[in-house]
What does this fold into?
Amino acid sequence: MSDFEEGDLVAVVGGTLDQAQQYTRNVTLCHVYAVGEKDLLVKEDTRHYPTLFKVSKKLCTRVGVDPELLMVSQPLKPQLGDLVMSYPSTRFADKDTEPYTGILYEITMAHGKPSSCKLLYDNALQDASYNTLIVLQKAIPNVKK
It folds into this structure.
């Protein structure tokens, strides 16, 4: 029995290997058009003129998720005291902008939801957009004796 079926969405891994054995990986999303014994015939839908091409099953991974999971899965909401990382929010951000890690110290609410915050970073408070935070570790709750 095959792991793939017609219509599946798959990630096809490719890349570039240079003389110094440096490997640069890329991934293309495709739909399975036909299933062979060891290969797939896939169609890349992102091109202006979708093209069918043959690829080894070994380079493909099915992409999918239970539809119910889409409705209940949410990113972890950062809370005061959490260890968080703030990352550049747009492709137009300054090229020198680096993500930074700190303790979530303050949250500013606007229109009923978190908008900005301050992180304790390098012994100072650093401004950040709340939407650019990812929780690295939840704060340890206070234990009452």
Remarks:
- The two ends are 58 Å apart (CA to CA).
- The first strand starts at residue 9 and ends at 17.
